[in-house]
Structure formats: C-alpha cells, structure tokens
Specification:
Blueprint (H helix, E strand, L loop, with lengths): L8 H28 L4 H14 L4 H10 L11
C-alpha cells in the first residue's frame, strides 16, 4: 500500500460515478412516483424503504475499485 498525499484519479472518477448513480436512481424513483402514489400507504412505505436502500448495493464494488483498482475481492487461496 502506498502512502501518497494526493488522492488517485480513480477516487475522483469513483466520486463522480457515485453522484451519477444517485441522480439516476433518484430520477427512477421520481418517475415511478405517479404510479406508486396511487397505492395504499402501507404498500408505499415498503416500496420507498426498499428504493431508499437498494441504491447502496452497487457501491461496494465501486468503492473497492476506488481503493484497490479491482472490481472483485481477492480471496486468499483455500488450504
């Protein structure tokens, strides 16, 4: 691991991708709002709870890439 004072360009790119992901996801949820608003409130709550948390799933590989340059985790060999 290197100890550099300045962040890598991967981190800047990753931050930009995270912002794009959030904007696209928010646009998707907003575009579904007219349909979802006709549902009963007890159906809307789980939908919005799920949509509010689901955008986090793609962040793990993206953050791993920002830190290591790899999209997948490197596991130690099984003995």
């Amino acid at each position: 691991m290197t100890n550099r004072a300045e962040p890598s360009s991967r981190k800047l790119g990753g931050i930009m991708l995270i912002l794009v992901l959030i904007l696209v996801w928010a646009g998707l949820v907003v575009s579904l709002a007219p349909i979802v608003s006709r549902w009963p409130i007890l159906a809307q709550a789980p939908f919005y709870s799920f949509m509010g948390l689901a955008w986090i799933a793609p962040l793990r590989p993206l953050i791993r890439w920002m830190e290591t340059g790899r999209w997948t985790a490197r596991y130690p060999p099984k003995t």
